[in-house]
From TrEMBL:
Keywords: Hydrolase. The keyword Translocase does not apply. This is Non-canonical purine NTP pyrophosphatase. The keyword Cell division does not apply. It comes from Halomarina oriensis. Belongs to the HAM1 NTPase family. It comes from the Archaea. Coiled coil: none annotated.
Length: 218
């Protein structure tokens, strides 16, 4: 049984489509300040593992707007709760109008898995999947996933990353959660998609699919 450690029900709904053997655990782990999602998720996974005492998955995600050098990125939750999704969308679109650029963005998700055991390969560098995402950016249709491991610190953690590219639009749709209404991928906002449609292309869906493969073999 894996404990999916989050306070966000939307994440758990999406995770259940990939993992039968999962329970939601509402544990508020420390979110360290970092420019990237990987270290935040890894730190959270170690803390959650110490709390739960069994296999845990911590999910750190964010919206990275191209014209803002990736902001709000790791601060997406804070910005959602302070500015709000609609205002983030307004600002991104207004800036794009001024510069004549398309308001491109990407969602990234990093899942950090920890079960107290080691992993076979543990390279130092953590790849969040954005390189591959950028390769596909021309049509705003790219999705990608990667895996990596980091063993800095006492307990090994394995990371699974996913990315989806798209553009910021006026809010549309009732589904999903968070920034989904203002993020369009291939003609639909994520909030206009069913959970299965979103999972098929989303940052979290890619990361979960890669994790599910790994877990099935473990
Ligand atoms: O930390 P936990 O408890 O898991 O829950 P959280 O909602 O605070 O999650 P994050 O720290 O990962 O913050 C991510 C922010 O990005 C948003 N977000 C994450 N995944 C998303 C998705 O698939 N679609 C839209 N918004 C998403 C989410 O609403 C938050 O504002």
């Amino acid at each position: 049984m894996i404990s999916y450690v989050t306070t966000n029900d939307g994440k758990v709904r999406e995770a259940r489509e990939y993992l039968a053997d999962v329970r939601a655990v509402d544990f508020d782990y420390t979110e360290i300040q970092a420019a990237e999602l990987g270290p935040i998720a890894a730190h959270g996974a170690r803390e959650a593992f110490a709390h739960v005492g069994g296999p845990v998955l911590v999910d750190d995600a964010g919206l990275f707007v191209d014209g803002f050098d990736g902001f709000p990125g790791p601060y997406s939750a804070y910005v959602e709760h302070t500015l709000g999704v609609d205002r983030v969308g307004d600002i991104a679109r207004r800036r794009a109008e001024e510069t004549g650029e398309t308001p491109r963005a990407q969602f990234r998700c990093v899942l950090a898995y920890c079960d107290g055991e080691g992993f076979a390969a543990t390279p130092d560098a953590v790849d969040y999947g954005d390189r591959r995402g950028h390769d596909l950016s021309a049509e705003d249709r790219g999705t990608a996933s990667t895996t990596d491991s980091i063993d800095a610190g006492d307990v090994p953690v394995k990371l699974f990353a996913g990315v989806v590219r798209g553009r910021i639009v006026e809010p549309r749709g009732e589904g999903g959660f968070g920034y989904d209404p203002v993020f369009e991928h291939d003609g639909s906002t994520l909030a206009e998609m069913s959970a299965a449609e979103k999972n098929a292309i989303s940052h979290r869906g890619r990361a979960l699919a890669t994790f599910a493969e790994f877990y099935a073999e473990r």
